[in-house]
Write a structure and sequence with these properties.
Largest interface: A-B, 22 and 28 residues
Strand content of chain A: over 45%
Number of helices of chain B: 0
Structural class of chain A: mainly beta
Order of helices and strands of chain B: EEEEEEEEEEE
Radius of gyration of chain A: 14 Å
Low-confidence stretches of chain B: none
Order of helices and strands of chain A: EEEEEEEEEEEE
Mean pLDDT of chain A: 93
Helix content of chain B: under 10%
Number of strands of chain A: 12
Shape of chain B: globular
Number of helices of chain A: 0
Oligomer: heterodimer
Helix content of chain A: under 10%
Radius of gyration of chain B: 13 Å
């Protein structure tokens, strides 16, 4: 069965600090996809990144970076030099190749960046 | 770029009433997903459609039904509304069943 765990319920840091959001997943499929979505206070879900199970390359996009490690079933997200606008709930999600691609979300991590 | 459109954005209903939520996917997207997000919770998958056929079903109550039309828009029909149905309802669309899901802004349903 699919499962995504985000053990950090809430994180609070001061602006310009680096912060890492953890995500651990479970799946029996060999082909799957991992995602991160951002949900700001306005409520929409904003797509950040998608990785497939065959691509373990880490990715960097500006201040955002992602570390995918199949050996530990983790897909962690780091924000460098955090800004107040990064304050949001961040969801990690998983979809399996043969499950019509429905997303299974983690519980979310509420990130607060204090000025 | 065009995004997923959901209407209405806010909806207030009384218990036992019915509600219809609409979703207009990104142009050329053929797959639509519906999710329900309760307060302080993560989104939960309800149902999906690919090329107008139901492709998967999650924890969707029997009181709810949905369909995808020939123009690929989708509607979620909810009857005999209960207080527990109060939530944010998201629609997402993808170009194919393997594509990235892009979400609409959501419909906030409040049942009084």
């Amino acid at each position: 069965a699919q499962k995504v765990t985000q053990a950090q319920t809430e994180i609070s840091v001061v602006e310009k600090e680096d912060v890492t959001l953890d995500c651990v997943y479970e799946t029996r499929d060999t082909t799957y996809y991992l995602f991160w979505y951002k949900q700001p206070p306005s409520g929409e879900l904003v797509f950040l990144i998608r990785r497939n199970s065959f691509d373990e390359q880490n990715e960097i996009s500006g201040r955002y970076s992602w570390n995918f490690q199949k050996s530990t079933s983790s897909f962690n997200f780091t924000i460098t030099a955090s800004q107040v606008v990064d304050s949001a709930v961040y969801f990690c999600a998983l979809s399996e190749e043969y499950r019509a691609q429905k997303l299974v979300f983690g519980q979310g991590t509420r990130l607060t960046i204090n000025p | 770029a065009a995004g997923v459109i959901q209407s209405p954005r806010h909806l207030i209903k009384e218990k036992r009433e019915t509600a219809t939520l609409k979703c207009y996917p990104i142009p050329r997207h053929d797959t639509v997903y519906w999710y329900q997000q309760g307060p302080g919770q993560d989104p939960q998958f309800l149902i999906s459609f690919y090329e107008k056929m139901q492709s998967d079903k999650g924890s969707i109550p029997d009181r709810f039904s949905a369909q995808q039309f020939s123009d690929y828009h989708s509607e979620l029909n909810m009857s005999s509304l209960e207080l527990g149905d109060s939530a944010l309802y998201f629609c997402a669309s993808t170009l194919t069943a393997r594509g990235t899901q892009y979400f609409g802004p959501g419909t906030r349903l409040t049942v009084l």
